[in-house]
Fold each of these.
Amino acid sequence: MTVEELLEKYAAGVLNFSGVDLAEANLSGVKLSGVNLSNANLSIANLSGANLSEANLSNAKLNVARLSGANLCNAILNNASLNVANLIRADLSRAQLKGALLIRTELIRADLSRADLSEADLTSADLREATLRQANLRHANLSETVLRGASLTGANLEMANLNASDLSRCDLSGANLRDTELRQANLNHANLSGADLSGANLRWADLSGANLRWADLSGAKLSGATLIGADLTNANLTNTIFIHADLTQAKLIRAEWIGADLTGATLTGAKLYATSRFGLKTEGMICEWVDLSPAGDRSIIQKFHSEDSRDFFNETPPTIRIIVDAALEHEANFAIAGAYYQIAQEYRGLKQPPSIESSRRRTVFTFYVDSDEALFSTAYIVILPFLDAASTQKSIASVVEMINSEVITNQDLKSLKSPLMVKQLNILLEQAINQATTIKQTKKNIEVAAKLNFCKAPTQIILTNSSAHTLIVHDNPNFGKRFINRSALNASTYDDISNESIKYDILPSLNMVTDFVKGFHYISN
């Protein structure tokens, strides 16, 4: 069939030209909207500027075809072969390209918005400055593809292969890159804000200057990656692997990175305001200084000498555990949640609710704190919903007084711990005492919780510092002594128990307190 015959039949209303052979034909500028060219051979054909919107080109051969400026909006190109084709500035918006072959295809400035390219092969394709907003590229092969300056906002690239691809200055904000292969990819100054990169393989990738604000990189692999000057503000880096990665002057403000592996990584000049320094693997890490200023403007610099950075970063997060000698019931769970919500409104040190572990006999509330010196003050506050609060608070005050006395007389402690740390510890406790009074007077949920039998049960309060040393600051004498029917005990009986615990509460020994404080990791700002 000649081009003239096809156009004549199309003008007469014929749309089905399935399997037609038009290799090397000149169809530039033709209008064939809605035409059926499935299984057609259009290799080396000239279709520049053609209107093929809503056309069916599934399984068609378009290798080395010229389609620059062509209108393929809503066209069906599933399993079509477009290898080495010229689609510069072509409109492929909402086109279906499932399983299509686009190896070494030129798609410079092409519009592929909302196109379905799932499982398509775009190896070594040129997509410079192309638009792929909300495109589906799930399982697509984009290895060694050039996407420099392209827009992929909201695109789905889950489990796609982007190994060794050029994504520099690419806009991937809000994109789904879950479990995507990005080994040795160039993401220099790319916008990945809000992107989901959980589980992605970014080994040896270049992310220098990239915008990763609010991105999810949990469980991602970034071994050997370059993140110099990258912005990871508020990013989720939980269990992320940064082995031998370069994070020089990276912005990690308010990032969540519990469980991150920074073995052998470079962190010199990183901005770490409001970022936890615990729960990390840091063996062999290189870090000469960090920026702790709120704005990341180097107004607060922490320098390190030799192995000092090991005291700053630590694998063990400081925790407070309240062990209640009773099973958690729904009513108590609801009341305590309300109590801690109100406490958090007044006490900023309670940044997140406790993790709860409940069995048929006991309940454990675990609180994480940002620093060792905040352990005592936070424990003073979080015990408030329980009847053991008074005895625990008295014990905490006594332990801190022991620390104050020991720092004055004990040369070992004096040489190991900065007086500023002890001063900070006292300031925090004094603030907690004042806030505890306010909370008890103004927060009604505390009163509601305190009336429950669960909150009147005996407790143990165990502190764990960043060196994994523990200290029991309160151990109710009745803890572990099971009553025949604890629920039958009246309020006065519980009050008697509480009063006894205040009277007979046994403080930890001076040696135990001293060893616990020696395990503090404190670096003055």
Note: The chain has ten helices and eight strands.
Amino acid sequence: MLERSVLAENALQALHDEDYDRPFNTQNLNHTTMIFMGGREQVSLDGDWNFCVDLLDTGLRQKWFAMEPAEPRDREEPWDYDPYMGETVPVPSCWQMLKEKWYFFEGSAWYTRPVDFSPKPGKRTFLRVGAAQYDCKVFLNGEFVGNHYGGSTPFFAELTDRLKDGRNWLMLCVNNARTLDRVPMRNTDWFNYGGVYREVSLVETPESLIRDFFIHLKPDSHFACLTARVVAEGAETAEISIPELGIRETVQLVDGKGSIDIAAGPLLWRPDRPKLYDVHVSAGDDRVSDRVGFRTIERKGRELYLNGRPLWLRGISVHEDDDKRGKVITEDDLRQRYADAKEMGCNFVRLAHYPHHERAVELADEVGLLVWAEIPVYWAIDFANPATERDAQNQLLELIRRDRNRACVAIWSVGNENADTDARLAFMKGLAETARAEDPTRLIAAACLVNHTKLKIEDRLAAYLDIIGINEYYGWYDEDFSELPKILANSQPDRPVVISETGADADITEQGPKDGLFSEDYQASVYEKQIATLKDLDFVKGMSPWILYDFRTERRQGIFQRGFNRKGLIAADKVTRKKSFAILRSFYHMVAAGEVEEWERS
């Protein structure tokens, strides 16, 4: 017999579906609605929006979206909320960081603002939302426009035939509740922020429209040929130009799609020389541009190669988290993050555990840091549920199509620490196949499993990956550090391993201990042992310890955590370095010096 709580939850979900949710699931704003954004002008809709948290989803039941602006005394009946007046919040923002009473709120919230518009002949208009956590329903002038699922990727809604001349009202209903059919599911290890936390804008295009553009070095061309692909509506040809390389080529489009190989010998992008080229694309009346670097990333046996040279990934994991703004990221945040990583000697960063802001990868392109990018197929996922798989596939496609022109992105990761079941294998194998089909120029990875009974790396998913990621916390959660050398000695993988996570908490506040678990010295000793164990293994080709900065997570409420994961090498203030920072920096600079000597010899 089902427990009473489960029965109640099922009844609430049925009521939720029956009353208001189903009519709004008929138009999904998924990857098929995306448009290529490079160089497009945008009209910002950031700033103050009217706002209301909606604990009981009253707004959908009472159809707040259909209300028209009016003075309260002029309404025919009273309303529980007026979307057009009252409290405001800034967009982008996370509501937890605005008021203490919203700190642990999970559910729906409403955003409303006016949009003044004058239609232009021959133009189309799109709404772009950089990210809203997690389920976002879009309404314009009282009509439902579409629904997007996924809290970390941008989405688009075409408003061309819906906008009227003059004042329009745009409404977003955003819900961050954790549910069983989402990616991630209910149990995570980062804070469940809510809100419209990235930029919102209107984008105007001609009637002909470039939907997608992908350009890269052609594999096995010895760095002498580029391949470009264009997807456009309303045009029979497209033109690609790269002025610095003297390139101007025409692509024939069949049913809106076309590709071309272009002879070229670009200067190759690499971390110590992040060369980028201005690339321009036109189709019909539409024009876009991008800053693109060209490089190759390959796996041969146990080895990794960047532009044909051996590569050891000196990395660090990072979360999108700020102790004052939550998930809202600024240019200064990103530049500080990468300056700290560079100081440490990193040549790559793992952007955990979800797609980060697109500016994070643009800037990595500019400063010269390789990127491991991933989607939140994290811990327990309902792998047998088709809705969950659709969510994961969509998030992966939106991430790839947003970022595949970024030379820095070397790895698409499809999951993190999931139990090795038949359903999980089919689910994640499908994600790996999707990533390769959409982008054959990058490596596929996941954080895989260790068999603690056999003391060896063992995960069926590994056969479908290029890189086996291993999250291991020997010296911390697994206190018997002697098991790690045994596991590594017993494991002889046929492909490279990257230690995608390792580390230990260190509370360096006045409340923190001076020795033992959670002390700065204990964390430092864990790093010293890890480096000594890993540095000479021929199949370990990199590491991205956990993590650059301490970050907020509601699951950690111990006396030395107090709502934060304190495994950062730098405290949550993003200034105070712990002893382990210098230990890892010393190791990474030693590895980098050895690489330079090896390249010079070859």
Note: Residues 63 and 142 are 9 Å apart (CA to CA).
Amino acid sequence: MSLDIIELTRARESRAAIEKLYIEMRHIFNSGSYSPSTISGRVLLEALHTLRPEIYGSIDDMEKVELNGLVYVMERLPKGIEQCRFLRLISDEGYSHSGFEVIIPAKRRRNCYKVDNDLMLVEVTRGRSEIYDILTHLTFMYNEAEKIKSHAFDKNGNKTKEWEQLEKIVEGNVKLTEHNRDLAFSHLSTLLGRTFEQTKQAFFRFEDTAPQNSGLFRIVYWLGKVAHAAEFENQPIQITFTPTLRDRIGHHIHGEQWATNIKKHLIEHKLLDRPIHIISANMHSVMNSLCALSALKEDFPDHKRAEDLAQELSKPNNQSLNNRVRQYAEQCGMLYLNDNSGTNISVQVFDTTLLDLSNLPAELKVNKEHIKKEKPVIIVMDYAFGEQAYETMDELLKPYKNANLLVKSISVMGKAGILHGGKGDLMIPSAHVFEGTADNYPLKNEFTKDDFKGSGLNVYEGAMISVLGTSLQNRDVLAYFRNSSWRAVGLEMEGAHYQKAIQAGSLIRKNVSSDITLRYAYYASDNPLLTGGTLSSGSLGTVGVKPTYLITTKILNKILNPK
């Protein structure tokens, strides 16, 4: 059998596994509950083992705990979840007004509540994509827990020496010091099936990247303890979905409230009948590009480029400077709408007529006559998550009190996994292909490869794959999309959902003009086809500053200085 046929077969198996995961997760959600030890839980685990996602590394090796994947998952799940055997996924059901402490994971903005030592509540307001994300991470976490248990206890459930030592450390009978830490690492490495050096590196990575979590010793201890109790003490893990969550999913309750709040502010400030440009991006790059030079001119008189100022503002010890830029922006008319709808999508509104257009970064070009005549308004919405992109964009484009918004352009700047090149490189989509379905969205993108020529970054143009979850992708599927006639250049989670809403609003429902200008550009947060290049290998760091501000500048130039 040729290598091409083998690769194609693996790609088909992997795509079938993704489809099985998708179907089983929908079934689990509709049924209301499941346990990792039941048939549904085993179906999820078997499909994940077939898929072997790159982000979960050595998930298929039952001797070795996947440490990078564990860091990645624990950054996205609430502190203490490893201790709980009852997990309840809820909607916004009033717990924010309870006495329970709100726990927000480091890399996922979702409210969680630890009711007691056994029960964790996880609030889901971002739609089905968030549910798939959580269930996938939980399946991986419980898989690693089984590995720990197999190293910590014998077949009769008796403790190993290494487990007894870990138990003493976690329960406080042995205090961890610099003198005995290496001994503790040695015991822990046996429980993890990893080398001493790998264990030590993982310990410090947990300390550096997720200090708000429980720490590697406690996480390993509780994962092993809960897995042991499930097998030997008849205390199975149970994941449930509340009736309110099951009733609300798919009904745009949070997105409608979010969009209505924006439109009310537009009316209040007499901006609803002005030309509107929507940008999906972060909450800093547009604000910094328009306001940082004026706000910080005394601190950095020699900095004339947005990227240079951004490098200064991205330093951890410069939070006070970021606060000053935001205060200055609000003085110049920026409206900051902190989310209270449950979408976790904050919004900024810029009235361009109130901006100081005489003191902008050198790379920003402004047609002052155009600004004076057209008076454009810029709405910046923070990143959506998966299917939530459809809900929020669909609701935002709807009329308000029978008045259509005069939306002139929609620009999407996103982070994505790249299939050519490396971190920081650019992808310009010509279409969005929704993985696992027959839904394809060709688009007329005002951005082209030439717009970014001479930037010093590699730029790739072609189809983007909108995936069910970045954690479900493996090398075989990604290589298939890259090397086949799809000729994909990258993968992300929102593009097809945005485009679905835009096409419905502009071409079918006629809520906005059919010739609305679209701009999509992504920068690479990782290359999942490269060994050590996945998201679990670590954050993008300052590498992301240059492409972020390059794309932001290109978007603003198209709005402020149209040709």
Note: The two ends are 55 Å apart (CA to CA).
Amino acid sequence: MGDIQPATREAARPTAPGRRGAVVAALMLSMALAALDSTVVSTAVPQIVGDLGGFSVFSWLFSGYLLAVTVTLPVYGKLSDTFGRKPVLVAGAALFLLGSLLCALAWNMGALIAFRIVQGLGGGALQGTVQTLAADLYPLKERPKIQSKLSTVWAVSAVAGPGLGGLLAAYADWRWIFLINLPIGAVALWLIVRHLHEPQRQSSPSAQKTPPRARGGSRLRATRGATRARARVDWAGALAVFACGGVLLTALVQGGVAWPWLSGPSLALFGAGLALAGLVVVIERRAAEPIIPGWVWRRRTIAAVNLALGALGLLMVAPTVFLPTYAQSVLGLGPVTAGFVLSVWTLSWPLSAALSQHIYRRIGFRDTALLGIGAATLILLAFPLLPYPGQAWQPALLMLLLGAALGLFQLPLLVGVQSTVGWSERGTTTASVLFCRQTGQTIGASVFGAVANGVLAARLGGAGDLDSVTRALAAETAPEAVRDAVASAVHAVYLGAACAAALAFLVLLCVAPRRFPVLTE
């Protein structure tokens, strides 16, 4: 059946079935918080800037949070494999709530940005550990259900975030954007502490050997002592990964925005990032328990899924970032209607993901993902063929189809790769997948932003970028030629997204094994 092959059995599942519902509720609340805080601030920026000032650096409210989440994912993944999911999730949730409280108390923009980074340090634990625990709690045949639920929560929360932020900023105070996290997070934290019980496990495969001198009643004590002794944390590697990721992602996020791509700051950051990447390789090759172990990239299945989902992060930038601009500037829709055009894929994506199990059980994880990303490539290629200016239902229909295609692509890969590793490697594996997807989104925002601005410059004689042109269109002071230029820029972005989808297809076809080496349960 599908990819299931004989292999090592997994350990017993954490938490009794009677308590599993409470833990799942906590996971869904945690996922909702992480998703909301990635988008909820966007519509409250005018109120925040009016209160605190700092307009020139407000973009770091988003970038700082994103950077902190992304660079901590590999660290939390390794820590969850070493010490268990519960302590990592509890610590991450507590740090996230502390960051939320501090954000609500911020006295200027610098303090708010710093506290958003604290929030992101906890958000990294929420994102990675929630996905890992979902795989721990459910056997392979039930994982599509829980993963599709989490996908639904993420999608709905991310789409609802801007609207909720705008309402709170308009009718209450922008500080409530962060204060509202406290009761929700406290409930999730209480459910995790009370109902999540993990069985005792060794920290790593190397820790499974009992010391030869342990005999009789002393065996258990000796084994526990050996486990604690071997539960070493590669703090030097964690710091190097954090520094390298932070520098490189900062270069990508700020390049072309705060300074030109070929300017001194960009070149300095990329140079420092490459030097730190070399340092990471040196440290990780010498570490006994590396934060990013080499097997993550030596195993074909994991490497292929990492690259494919990195391409998914890249292509997702086209609809999530540029489609609302297209809907408002080209189609002339209001913000609410434009948001609906984007949000329709939150209907088809979870549904398709939940139904994907019926396909991958017959043809396997890889072939199901190939079917999904192949369809996504064609849908993305169809976007530039839409008539100008067109009707709202046309991009909405494409988004509905795109969500269905990506549901067939993402969930089989995530479920499949999690099922190829045991408990002691699942946190690291899941974190590497999420890290690649997040990094893909960061790269996509930079690359496609440059593409869109380049097309606009060519069409408008070198004047303006997408942001300034969009503001002019909102004020209805721009001629029809400018609207046509925006349409051309977004079409170019969608062509780039189609190339990213085609790249994911080729990676799966050429690198991934046809049958994933799934562990039996």
Note: The longest helix spans residues 423-459.
